[in-house]
Amino acid sequence: MTISLKTIYAAALASVVFLAPGVEASKCSCVRPTIRREWRTLSVEKRLAYIDAVKCLMNKAPESSTDDLPGVRSRYDDFVGTHIVQADFAHFVGKFYPYHRLYLHSWEKALNTCGWTDGLPYWDWNRDFGTDEDFFNSPVFDEVTGLGGNGAWVLGNITHPEPGFSINAPWDMPDRTGGSCIQTGPFANLTSSFGPHDNIAFNPQPECVRRDFSPQSFQDITNPDNVEMAMAQVDYGWFSMMTEPTIHAGGHLGVGGLYGHMADKWASPADPIFWLHHGNVDRAWWSWQKRDLKNRVNDISGPIINFDYANEFGGNITLNDVIYIGETVKLETTIREVMHIQRGPLCYDYDELY
């Protein structure tokens, strides 16, 4: 299937990436890694337990300061807020994958404080590829044992949006089907303290978290062919550059559409589906790494400055560059420490890989 990624990505896909020299990632004593499993393979009891843990974080007091995140109200907000603050430094740059790997690790540890002791579940997009109905009927969106469904239909398009609704997608979404608050499931009428976009100010009337399912965009961008294309890349630079605007973006846009939070580069973690989606994003990277782990555990590159894939302005990242998860637990490490998921601070594995 031919995919149009729009002008914003075209230059990136045509650029050249030079690899930074690497040194083997440090080792640790990861004896019993937690196992991350696909959502629908979990028992009903496990799915409900995960949902309860997420709700627990939404009801816990924040650990960040209002000096850093003026609008923070909960422990869950800590994670949304830190993503907003760091989004411009962690997307369309070389550290995209390492940053989000550490970010998910921090989230997983927070879930542990709410009784969740298993690995972070993930959403394997390939299992819901096919027809629009395959997407709509995904167990991820189940009203009882999933994270709930779509928002109600809202009029408008990218040039004439409905008044009061922020545009979150980078282009129009003619296949969108919703746009308003989550209607069903455990997170129906969920609100977010932050957003839209990079807004972290205190909001006395938080907006609801919106979904705008766009099934055809999901099928076009996040599909098995693009997953295989990702696995075929010869180095990290090309892997990252080819996948961030395809299999990664398609999951965001498929759920977020035009108006939904998942399409918001900054505030997308406000939608709990974010964590399952990014669990699979990390799984895709590890799947690619495992195909030549000896070399790929040290393979890192990509721009320091957003979209600077030709290295005209800032050069490449290296294994020694620092990644920092700010307003969650003040977690800081180097990229080198997260290149292997059973070394450094990490200790997990996936039930299966691509």
TrEMBL record:
GO molecular function, one term: metal ion binding
Keyword list, A-Z: Copper, Metal-binding, Signal
Coiled coil: none
Tyrosinase copper-binding domain: residues covered: 271-282
Gene3D superfamilies, sorted: Di-copper center containing domain from catechol oxidase
Source organism, top-level taxon: Eukaryota
Keyword Iron: no
Signal peptide: 1-25
InterPro entries xref list: Di-copper_centre_dom_sf, Tyrosinase/Hemocyanin, Tyrosinase_Cu-bd
Metal-binding keyword on record: yes
SUPFAM superfamilies attached to this UniProt entry: Di-copper centre-containing domain
PANTHER family assigned to the protein according to its UniProt record, in alphabetical order: TYROSINASE FAMILY MEMBER, TYROSINASE-LIKE PROTEIN TYR-1-RELATED
Entry protein name: Tyrosinase copper-binding domain-containing protein
Organism: Plectosphaerella cucumerina
